[in-house]
Amino acid sequence: MTSPASKIEDSRPTPEAARTRRRETRPLLARLGEARHLGLVVALVLLMVIGVVTKPENFATSDNLVSILALASTIGVITVGMTFVITGGGIDLSVGAVMALASVWATTVATQSYGPLVMAICAMLVGTGVGLVNGILVSYGRIVPFIATLAMLVAARGLAQRMSDRKTQILQPENNAIEALSTTRVLGLPLVVFIFAAVAVIGWLVLGRTTFGRRTFAVGGNPEAARLAGIDVRRHTLLLYTISGLCCGIAAIIIMARTTTGSSTHGDLYELDAIAAVIIGGTLLTGGRGTLVGSILGVLIFTVITNLFILNGLQTSDQLIAKGVIIIAAVLLQRRGLESSA
Question: What does each of the 342 residues of the chain score in pLDDT, given as a tens digit?
Fold first, then answer.
């Protein structure tokens, strides 16, 4: 007569069966991801067709298309960091304010006197430092990510206002190398677009082709299981928020190049655009599944929508309503997909 314990052991899948199941699951997930990416590409093409049909004299010009890519570069770099954080099971509401703080800090007269290289390094250090603080609060302080980053949003925006005295700080002429990132073109595109592309490619490689990326999926999917598997969940979470802060610092350099200013008003509601792009790109808000390719396509879709609204003379409030509807629709589709696959 077999004991209950032996029955439990007999019912457990063998290592070979577990490996076979994983091999069967991976192609399914890959197909789902490819289908979503294809859908996003189709949506992007349809939006561009709408632009060509409704405003052919304005939308289809090379200057307007370059403007779309330049605008997407700022929010796109931030979205790369946001993808890492959300895939890891967190959220970062402070990205816009952190970018503003980094731009203000880098454009102070004292910093500008050291030249453009120091300004760029300063922006990245400020962004990384704030991201590090967010990571410490979330991982070691055990504060809910929503609350920790919401508090940082308020604090960073207030510090930016205090440092700039609520005034826009202009780049000095001797620091035109920063502006050159936006005015200098290679293959018809400004350098800021290539910065965005470089960050996106590096992020894609790290998230999808390295141990760090696999650990990010593990931490976001099941933190306790990741801990039992030997992953230092707290340290990894700290690194995710630090990456997000670094991306905000790089975005601050891009916004300084595009506007030749540092301002406490930079990045207003950028957290909305970044989170929306990540969601419609296919990354789960609950963590554990993410795709950087989808996030980049989401950035391009939202940027084209914004451009179409501007060209058609629609108000900013209409843009916000449309983005809110898109976010809700994306979350509902995610939930329906999870329920159908359960």
Answer: 455 444 444 444 454 544 444 444 445 445 555 667 788 888 888 888 888 888 878 888 888 899 999 999 999 999 999 999 999 999 999 999 999 999 999 999 888 888 899 999 999 999 999 999 999 999 999 999 999 999 999 999 999 999 998 888 988 888 888 899 998 999 889 999 999 999 999 999 999 899 999 999 999 999 999 999 999 999 999 999 999 999 999 999 999 999 999 999 998 889 988 998 998 888 888 888 888 999 999 999 989 988 888 888 777 777 778 878 877 877 777 676 655 555
- Burial annotation 135-170 (CB, 10 A radius, 16+ → b, else e): bbbbbeeeeebeebbbebbeebbebbbebbeeeebe
281: Cα within 13 Å, side-chain hemisphere? 30
Cα angle at 43 between 42 and 44, to 5 degrees?
90
- Report how far apart, in Å, the C-alpha atoms of 106 and of each of 23, 87, 139, 147, 180 are: 49, 30, 28, 27, 16
d(CA 217, CA 57): 45
The residue behind tokens 């010009």 is 61
CA distances from 160 to 124, 176, 251, 271 (A): 15, 23, 16, 17
pTM for the predicted model, two decimal places: 0.86
